Amino acid sequence: MGEDSHDSGWMRLDHLRVSLGALLAGKGEVSHDGKFIANPTADKRLEHSSMVATRAGWIALSGGVLAKAATIATRYSCVRRQGRSPLDTIREARLIDHDAQALRLLRGIASAYVLKLAGQWLLLDAALDRQPEWLIGALKAIACTISADLIEDLRRCCGGNGYLLNSGIAKISLDNLWRVTAEGDVQVLLSYAGRKMRELAQGSLFHEEDESSIPISIDLQARAHRAHEIARNRCDSVCDIVAARAYGEW
Fold it and tell me: Residues of the signal sequence (predicted)?
């Protein structure tokens, strides 16, 4: 499972000796008698920086792959006809005309907007070095889990076509599943975040801030207003309605 182009793998070495001079020794070195000597000039903040950055990037990435799956499922639902429609007694109804199908599609589209916005805020506006690593880990866990669950539901929205690899959505589901456990399992990350939150003083996590000091909040308010106006003037556009809902909820 996972992306075919991913270069992760494993290697087994037997009776191989690596000389001390060949070690990278960025954070420390090993003496000839086998003792580890830490590098006092090494920045300990770099130990988890790559992992934290990867987790933050996957939040936005989860929204991106979810958007792809939602696009495929929505397009398929617009052309596939099945079941009778009270609006057309001659032809069968499109899948998207069924309320249950439309609700599942809208859930995926709206969630894609929210995850993309959350990733954008974290990577571009919030500054990773100012955010606690447990909070980023919790957001990664939630985002990847929501994305994986909704992509699988969208795949099922395509019926038998969703099982075919050439449909596009089946491979998206398989390629995305590994992110739920990679770089931290969802249960581990959320449990760790819960312990950290219990250590916080009451009101210190969700403290009130002046929205004028947060540039993205002003931008999102403007976007929400524009999306709402578009949705009101073009009520037949599913994407515009979902955009207004997503920006409004955010």
Answer: none
